[in-house]
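Retro notes - structure team

What went well: the batch runner handled both jobs without manual restarts.
What didn't: labels got mixed up in the shared folder, which is why I'm recording both outputs here explicitly, each with its sequence directly above its tokens.

Job 1
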Amino acid sequence: QVQLVESGGGLVQPGGSLKLSCAASGFGFNNYDMRWIRQALGKERELVATITTGLTTTYPDSVKGRFTISRDNAKHMVYLQMNSLKPEDTAVYYCNVQGFFMGGIFRNYWGQGTQVTVSS
């Protein structure tokens, strides 16, 4: 079955950096766009990075220039490099894939999430 396992979260001071990793399995990874989505306590989910199968990346203004998404198709891994972190980046970060899977059914898969806390 589809599995997404995030790692790399933690506590970091403002201005610091973290790199999140997502190990994907159970589906044709190379054929799907991948996303990082975050949710802060009491707030709605926010899409923070997308990488397409063609390696095109997109970011909202809130993280543009600070976050970089990448993928390793050979290892079935997705990464999120986060620099110049701010307290408002504090959230649970989720790896996400959505699309048509076996049987032509549209599905939306999530990892378990990894906590990122930016605080002095």
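Job 2
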Amino acid sequence: QVQLVESGGGLVQAGGSLRLSCVVSGSTFRFSAMGWFRQAPGAQRELVASISSGGSSDYADSVKGRFTISRDNGRKTVYLQMNSLKPEDTAVYYCNTILYGSTVAFGSWGQGTQVTVSS
């Protein structure tokens, strides 16, 4: 059973930056595509960034040019560098294993990490 532990969230002013981390248990991390999702209050969970096992990445239009996803297979960790944050980025952020090129998530959800951007 893959376990996901997200961290790095917090309160930041608009224009600021945060770096989220997600540590993944299990032996198949290096073969897995990973995604960062977010869920704002009253909204559906949405995929904002994804990275393939080979390092290719893709982004939602709303974060393109501001967010960067990366992975460290040795540490079984996926990162989300978030720059130029906006109040509309406020949400709980989750990572999960995904089918690259889709929004389908496979694993159980972790507790997420709260990101709050003040104006």
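One thing worth noting from job 2: The radius of gyration is 13 Å.
We'll revisit the folder naming next retro.
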